[in-house]
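Notebook p. 47: complex prediction with adenosine-5'-triphosphate.
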Amino acid sequence: MALVIDQVTKRYQDFTAVNQLSFTIEKGEIFGLIGQNGAGKTTTFRMILDLQGATEGDISWNGETMHKVNRDVLGYLPEERGIFPSMTVEDQLYFFGVLRGWAKKDLKSEIDYWIQRFDLEDKRKAKAETLSKGNQQKVQLIASFIHKPEFLILDEPFSGLDPVNRQLLMNAILYLKERGTTILFSSHQMDNVEELCDHLCVLKRGVSLFTGSLLELKGQYGKIKLSIRTSLDKSQLFALPGVESVKETKDGFTLLLEDESYGKQLFEILGKGNYMEKFSMDYLSLDEIFKDLVGGEHD
Ligand code: ATP
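Predicted complex, structure tokens below:
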């Protein structure tokens, strides 16, 4: 285990922002921390990076307590975005690389690579302040890992990026993982979390509601989402056994079942004398599970 968070609590006076949080991250994996605004994600990141102390509990990286860990093995994209406005993109990246112990000459190929990969070639010599918000964010992102950290924390890396840039970032994160980087990130975009994460932790008001793999989380709910196209109408579907809710979609209906086991029964009922063009049982999406977990209800 690379990162170990053991029974960590953070209190601000009588307010508990993070409560008895424990999870571990294996070397080279991508771990997602998800939760609503104010759930305690940034506080957790800041404690891991030793930017603020935990009230209780221990955090270690490769067995070493965080305040003893060499800063250069860590990378951090904070939630607050900030770059030097009058420095060029290229100078900015050299600056952060040198700050983290690299020789300028060794940085060139790395900087070239990322500028090209993030489609910033024509902005290379531009002052950061002249860049769009999304492009500024890409520069800050590159700056967070230009020194090849072993462990990279990205706080909301996808926010503010358009779909093309989000995809560029997803691919970049997967590439960093391939290169052996351990990555912890937060996001409100559940589709990104779903595609990237090996494991995840769902936080609600500082408390972990779930820690484990995506498949384990989905397995806890089972395949309770039934997509169908049938000649029956909404109220007829709602009257069927085990049906909790019915939603009309562009492509028929989506039913949520009390339990996966109703699937067989419904297949038999629906197939008898009724024309059924589509019948497909599936897991809930992470987005649906998240809303259920933290909000206590299905969409
Ligand atoms: P978001 O998704 O909005 O970024 P988050 O999950 O990152 O939220 P945190 O920023 O960790 O949430 O905040 C957790 C809670 O701790 C919030 O209720 C916040 O108001 C509180 N908090 C954070 N810093 C302080 C502080 N210095 N003093 C008092 N309360 C604080």
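Notes: The longest strand covers residues 15-25. The chain has a mean pLDDT of 93.
Next step: compare against the earlier run before touching the bench.
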